[in-house]
Amino acid sequence: MSDYLLSKLNQSNTQQNPSAQQNGINIPNQTGYMAGNNFSQQIPINSNEQTVSGSGTSKYEIKKRVNKELNEIMANQQGEPDDNFLKTTLITLISRYNISEIMKQDLVMEIFNDIRGYGVLEQFLHDQDVTEIIVNRYDNIWVEKFGKMIKTNAQFNSEEELRNLIDKIVQPLGRRIDDNQPMVNARLVDKSRVNAVIPPIAADGATLDIRKFAKKVFTIDDYLSFGTMTKEMADFIRWSVAVRKNIIVSGGTGSGKTTLLNFLSNYIPENEAIVTIEDLLELQLVQPNVRRLEARGKNAEGTGAITIRDCVINALRMRPDRIVVGECRSFEVVDMLQAMNTGHDGSLTTVHANNTKDMIERLYVMYLMGGLDVPEKAVKSQIASAIHLVVQTQRLSDGTRRITQISEIVGFGKSGVDKNNEWVEKMGLDNKFYIKNVNNSEVYLQDIFRFDGIKNKFVVTGWVPTYFEEIQAKGYPVNIEMFKGGE
């Protein structure tokens, strides 16, 4: 057996279990026997096999053989083996092969991670710079690192190995994935989000996506250093939260909506009662008066689902000052808009949309999904009266994330146009903000800040938000000069 591997093992064991030596945990001895502290039976390793050559044998084949032998050993044990026992057994089995010390160590950790962790994905889960892991198929794995997608050299040995990992993830959660239910959403112990799809829905083989849980709540300084927004933009949106404006964060997949929602939510005053509602718990509010609700999918029997809408309806009975919904995707928007219009000012949510105008249309479509026979004008009027501000975020082609629009909803139809034009005249704003043609079915927005992708810079449009004086009256150091600009 390799002294190098044993030293590495002992170092690892000491770090993971400092009392291991005191508890009598043994490494394999010269006679080929080993024993763990939780086992009364010693495990014989056939001495005739200890010098089996690995020459010409693939790593995959060695791994298959070792796994088979390990399963036979474990079948004779009582109870669950501890980590030390598992590693020492693996080292003994793998050390018989005539392969490099590095490959031996890699195989020990690979097989150990297959059993205790997430196999070849374990390295990416522990890499703090990796934010997402995408398995397109068992031999095609990508990660997002520093905002960019990178193809890795890692791969599972087979489709079966990937499927086993997916089962390992979902089964402890009471979920199932099979031919009748080939798609599943789940959450790891560390709160990372998991989505898996298997054939026949996944045409090229099983796929797996793990979006790692962001443990750090970004600050203004973080966003400024990332170039996500300017100081003026950050101040304005956090002041908008503080003065109880209803805000929607809009953006595409991976654009940073949830992270930005978390940032904004932490500017809700501490004395207010907050109810958060999410598909999978991700928000990390620091206020003391927070109640968190989590939607639930169907169980293995196909029953027991609790939807986001169920949670929103129930939240209205919990006397919240504000409701924060992780994402509106369907007809829960009906109840969310009603909440925003009936005394729950300062509520927040996110919507999947490409720009602020598209977000309005998305809300309208989601409203109709509720099966309510409501005229378009009535729905859009409710949208305009419920929402004050839209913050659009986007992931650019280079992987960076930018807030590309901060837009105020100024009103709906003729009344919205009248309100807009009166404000333009009162504040002496540029005539470009004056609306001449009235569309009685349109929700009107004005951009306050915008990102110019061609010039790669943020632009202040010159529009002064209609609640500027309200922010000022609350004592925040807002200055009208921060909104003056021009394009």
| Tertiary shape | elongated
What is the residue-averaged pLDDT?
84
Write the CATH architecture name of the largest domain.
3-Layer(aba) Sandwich
Helix-and-strand structural type: alpha/beta
Please tally the β strands and state the result: 17
Say which CATH homologous superfamily of the largest domain is assigned: P-loop containing nucleotide triphosphate hydrolases
User: And the CATH topology of the largest domain?
Assistant: Rossmann fold
Description of the molecule:
This protein is an alpha/beta fold and 487 residues long. It has 3 domains: 114 residues, no CATH class; 90 residues, 2-Layer Sandwich (Beta-Lactamase), CATH 3.30.450.370; 264 residues, Rossmann fold, CATH 3.40.50. Helices cover 34% and strands 19% of the residues. It is built from 15 helices and 17 strands. Strands 11-10-12-13-9-14-15-16-17 form a 9-stranded mixed beta sheet, sandwiched between helices. Strands 5-4-3-8-7-6 form a 6-stranded antiparallel beta sheet, covered by helices on one side. The chain has a two-stranded antiparallel ribbon with strand order 1-2. Helix 1 runs antiparallel to helix 3. It is elongated, with a radius of gyration of 29 Å. The protein starts with a helix and ends in a 14-residue tail after the last helix. The N terminus is likely disordered.
Q: What labels would you give this structure?
A:
487 residues; alpha/beta; Beta-Lactamase; Rossmann fold; 3 domains; nine-stranded mixed beta sheet; six-stranded antiparallel beta sheet; 15 helices; 19% strand; disordered N terminus
